[in-house]
Amino acid sequence: MTTIGTVTDEPTAESIWQAMAGITIDDHLLEWPPDVFALTDTLLERSEAYRFALSPPDGAEWPPPDVPGWPDAVVDAARRWSSWVEDRHGPVPDLLAREWKALRDAAGSPLIHLSKAHDWQLCSALLTLHAIADEACAGLGVALDASDGDGAR
């Protein structure tokens, strides 16, 4: 059996993202929430770990009990992250930084650990990052004013 963190030939979060996006999982991704959404969506879909939000493995809880008021904490982190993206002053929100670190620390672990929830911290981090990124992306790409039909001239 492979232990968590052991280098293998199996797909990892890092190798999947590298193959898909052509870039590494690094802090530059935090500069644009849709990039983090794409990363987390890809990893959750490929590992089928979305299911753990509805049916966590034995001994695990969802949402994470160490994040009181998880839904509000996600909205707050997303709002503060969106503000940070605009002016880049200070650090990213604590919840985002914590979950991002968990992902970065486990990026080289085999994806099977995520699929089987052997690394619950990574599963929880990905689900939380995905929710924060989704909330931070709210409204992106949506026209704020209706077109008058004449188009831009």
What does this structure look like?
- It is globular, with a radius of gyration of 17 Å.
- Helix content is about 50%, strand content about 0%.
- The longest helix has 18 residues, at about 70-85.
- The protein contains 6 helices and no strands.
- The protein has one domain (about 25-135).
- It has helices spanning about 15-20, 35-45, 70-85, 95-105, 110-115, 120-135.
- Helix 2 (about 35-45) crosses helix 6 (about 120-135), helix 3 (about 70-85) packs across helix 6 and helix 4 packs across helix 6.
State the major sheet. Answer: none
What count of helical segments does DSSP give?
6
Q: Assign an overall shape.
A: globular
Spell out the helices and strands N to C: HHHHHH
